[in-house]
């Protein structure tokens, strides 16, 4: 217990914790983000219904409005869709898929971008020029277009049936390939600064190989900006997944995500069943805003010029 107490005291005395507790907006954003994660990954425990258990669905429950409107039912707080699925439960299950895709895509982009950034910055020369020119070319295209291009190429290679089976993996890779450039450019710039410092020269003198120096000594000193980018990119990855799924080139309707839920609901928006698309869309907006606010705070908190 003494070790835990000492750890907590170090956290409580840190500048990062002080900056966090000083802003009520950041604390609210963190609370909302935690609630979303708890609701999403605890959906099998907390969701009022399992909207994807076909045996429990009843078509007579379809198009029920939210409980506060006429014809509403407290059993379905946010109403139901055309198949009688509880909207609140579909949001919880859909958020789990969207967050999982976002997390895995960010991790993939981080690994790829950090690796290429370390190679470009540490080796320099023709290798650096080639990697950075590829990055420059990719920056000239919107991320959503890159993701759609990768998805389309994969669909043509695998075929529709196999693509549907591997849709989750394809989506993660396509989104990850859209965002690696930011990590690579940031890490490369930091490595160019760090590799000429005395601790790197000392590591070279004692005979450590270049890859070991880059990973063990240089990489830890460039992770601050990377964590900020990763936090902001999580929100961007969730938005990209929702956009692709809404356009029909992401996850199929059988795999729930916030994008597929919005896509399903927009078909009934003009007929008066507004809750089918408004609630998933609102949940997506709140989630992305909360994560973005946390990313902005982390960027400012880790910037030594603002301390």
From TrEMBL:
SUPFAM superfamilies: MetI-like. Coiled coil: none annotated. It comes from the Bacteria. CDD domains: TM_PBP2. The chain crosses the membrane at residues 25-47, 101-124, 130-154, 166-182, 226-251, 274-298. Gene3D superfamilies: MetI-like. The keyword Coiled coil does not apply. The keyword Chaperone does not apply. Residues 95-295 form the ABC transmembrane type-1 domain. Signal peptide: none annotated. It is found in: Cell membrane. Keywords: Cell membrane, Membrane, Transmembrane, Transmembrane helix, Transport. It is a multi-pass membrane protein. It holds the Pfam family BPD_transp_1. Belongs to the binding-protein-dependent transport system permease family. This is ABC transporter permease. It comes from Ferrovibrio xuzhouensis.
